[in-house]
THAP domain-containing protein 4
Amino acid sequence: MVICCAALNCSNRQGKGPRGRVAVSFHRLPIATFKKLVQFDTLRLFIYLETAQLNPVIEPLSWMLGTWLSDPPGDGTFPSMKPFQYLEEVHISHAGQPMLNFSFNAFHPDTKKPMHRECGFIRIQPDTNKVAFISAQNTGLVEVEEGEVNGQELSIASHSVARISFAKKPHVEQITRKFRLNSEGKLEQTVSMSTTTQPMTQHLHITYKKVIP
């Protein structure tokens, strides 16, 4: 069991003193410890469901927020591989900090087995439209992309790329991405890349439908 966040309304153990509401983080709290905590007869515990307020710094990226599902499946291609399709689930959220949190989880359209996965953060330089996209991928690649947000379009290119020592070849050398919210309210992503054997070429294109705001 994992309790992520809660709010407590409690008095002291003798039932005296002012009652107050205290936000408590229980992320990865062991269940045994949690049980001890709730033994106090004056403790009233309820799950804290309030949504953090959006930090004004990331307001220019608010159009990306939500849970998105591929609609239709995405298309992948590259000179060194056969064309393929994939499903993808995207979560883009915030915790009141001046950044967005994201995860991209791709699945095979037929077997539904996991494929490419990545997660990270999107930051924006205050009072500018300059954006940084920080990503860690299950392929062993870690990268920082930077670019600009203009309206409901974000264009970024890799600033630095690092990989594990036993990463599969050919190695990725550069990545560019473009996100945009189209006229139908769907999120589009186009990814291009260059490797040690191929020049910059479009690799992925996918459209997502928002399923949870």
